[in-house]
Amino acid sequence: MDLYEHQARDLFERHGIVVPAAEVTDSPRRAREIARRLGGRVVVKAQVKTGGRGKAGGVKLAADPAAAELTARQILGMDIKGHTVGTVMLARPVDIDSEFYVSYVLDRAAGRFLAIASAEGGTEIEEVAATRPEAVARVPIDLAEGVTSAKAAEIAAAGGLPPQTVDVLVRLWQVLVREDALLVEVNPLVRTPRGQLVALDGKVTLDDNAAFRHARWGGDSTGPTDPLEAAAAAKGLHYVRLDGEVGVIGNGAGLVMSTLDVVAGCGARPANFLDIGGGASARIMADGLSVVLSDPAVKSVLVNVFGGITACDAVAEGIVRALDTVRLTRPLVVRLDGNNAAEGRAVLDAHRHPLVEQATTMDGAARRAAHLATTA
Questions:
Q1: Is 185 among the residues known to form the active site?
Q2: Is the pLDDT of residue 39 over 70?
Q3: Is 239 among the residues known to form the active site?
């Protein structure tokens, strides 16, 4: 459950982390009034649950209340990676001396949390990690110990952060623990010319399973805001939208995650995670294909199924019947393996859809789907 930036800001403030004065609105006229209250000059920020807002034009500086109204009018209604901007946050600008990156994130593979820290704040941490890995410190957290002042000092030293960030690191850990979060991130954490530390932007992901302990999580933070994720949720599908061009459908979360990795290894980017579970009825396949093909970024679709309790011929029949109700406009690569795989492939061969082709291995299917997507 991702929070909007303004919700993350409120959490930080509640736990004693300094944040800029800010207000949220869905009205350009009220944006003018808010800017006046905040001193005139403000930063207008689109409130969407995705990254890349600045590059998309969703974060702009307004010099005065009139400019704030005009800027809010320009940003409201924008589409940023499939997210429509419904509200904007207006924040008082902060003078910046230096910028840092700090976060705590769940390391699912290791079954623990990691602290990530870098003196290279204000940029995408993935880009820094890829080009200058030595600039990003990763410090495992002992859950029994948590983040004490001593641990926070260790994290700060590893990431090249000044000693004064220790208190922020301790408080950020308190946000994670007390709010049942899976991710808390501040980027950038800035130091002003007067030496004050301010969380200029924040990202928080809460654990859905703990919602019963937090009544205030209600409202617009409880459901998916991406229109495709909302449509998939309404159909009972486990779908997450990503920034890529190869749509991925599989049965089983582990298989789908592996497929995403293999697609990426073939030089393409997965467009989504979609787990259809143990069954692949015509309705489920039709719903899945409909959602995946609704993403205009998708250039090809990869269906990767390992037949177990549900046999591959039943899956193939589901695909064939789904194609009777869903207009296939992009190539579909299918890999069937396991129970009755040969029979399933025969079903698809007999159907002879011009945009459907098969591969016998996951690697081969991923290479073909990646090629079709990147050469479209």
A1: yes
A2: yes
A3: no
